[in-house]
Design brief:
Shape: elongated
Distance between the termini: 37 Å
Order of helices and strands: EHEEHEEHEEEEEHEEEEEEH
Strand content: 35-45%
Number of helices: 5
Bound molecules: nicotinamide-adenine-dinucleotide
Helix content: 10-25%
């Protein structure tokens, strides 16, 4: 098996990475950063997101596994305390694959699309952001406020949850649109509730002025500058989560609060 390690930049994660390398090399696994079959992310959910974006180009051909060096995260399957169990599973078991589809984000002024596992957000902390939302080309609503968040099932427990969006059960492939601190008054109203959509929907956000807004996707944030239109739909890319043991979504959910 060819593997690579992506780790959080701290001493503890370095130590875990050394242990993983020692064991896997002893069992004949080859370290291959360029062309891995399995990427082991050591740190937290943020480290896994970072790893996913590092390998975006060939993502469909790669499996991902997360080892949390703190408390159990949402995208990670083992904690540091379970390192021996994890390593034994790696060398003795065949993983089941859970596929998590990625959002594709096209900005009219950008050459290439961006991709997101958790969510994409348009956020403006400088001034209230006006934008028109179209779904499958049909006008849906005008949003005013700090922005919007469009999340996947995997991202439903992340930023979306802080916006009081619904947690989506694993196995469902949907997109969820939630507003970020929307302005609601007698002259302006928007839906106000999170809207859960079919996976085939295409959502467009249009504005004459995104100059002070940021496009945030997963852990990445980029200024929108003179962009006027952002289009989002599911892509043909996905993250292959390698599950070496029974995965309980409910257990993770209960760990969240
Ligand atoms: P980070 O890596 O420090 O993560 C922030 C928190 O979000 C951590 O507690 C992490 O465990 C949790 N998280 C990330 N993905 C998750 C998921 N799919 N389900 C449940 N929890 C999850 O922060 P970052 O690198 O700036 O951003 C990465 C992600 O963190 C973003 O995709 C966003 O969803 C999330 N985030 C959430 C908030 C919020 O809830 N207010 C704020 C910032 C970022």
């Amino acid at each position: 098996m060819r593997y690579a390690i992506v780790r959080k930049l701290d001493e503890n994660s370095d130590h875990v990475a050394d242990e993983v390398t020692k064991k896997l090399q002893a069992y004949g696994w080859k370290y291959d950063e360029e062309n891995p079959t399995l990427v082991i992310c050591i740190g937290g959910d943020g480290t896994l997101l970072y790893g996913v974006h590092q390998y975006m180009e060939n993502i469909n051909q790669i499996m991902f596994l997360g080892i949390h060096t703190g408390t159990l995260g949402f995208l990670t399957d083992y904690t540091q305390d379970e390192l021996n169990v994890c390593l034994n599973d790696l060398i003795s078991r065949e993983p089941k694959i859970n596929k998590a589809p990625l959002l594709k984000i096209k900005v009219d002024k950008w050459e290439n699309p961006a991709y997101a596992l958790n969510e994409m957000r348009i956020e403006n902390v400088i001034k209230s952001q006006n934008m028109d939302i179209y779904i499958d080309g049909e006008f849906f609503e005008k949003c005013r406020g700090s922005g919007i968040c469009l999340s996947t099932q995997a991202g439903s427990t992340a930023y979306n949850r802080s916006l009081k969006g619904a947690v989506i059960d694993s196995g469902l492939s949907v997109m969820q649109l939630a507003e970020i601190t929307p302005i609601q008054h007698s002259k302006h109203r928007s839906l106000g509730n999170p809207y859960i959509m079919m996976e085939t929907r295409k959502v467009s956000m249009l504005s004459d002025d995104f100059t002070t807004a940021m496009l945030c996707y997963d852990h990445i944030a980029v200024p929108l500058n003179d962009a006027k239109k952002i289009e989002v739909c599911f892509s043909d890319k996905y993250v292959n989560f390698a599950r070496y043991r029974e995965y309980s979504y409910l257990r993770r959910l209960k760990n969240l609060y």
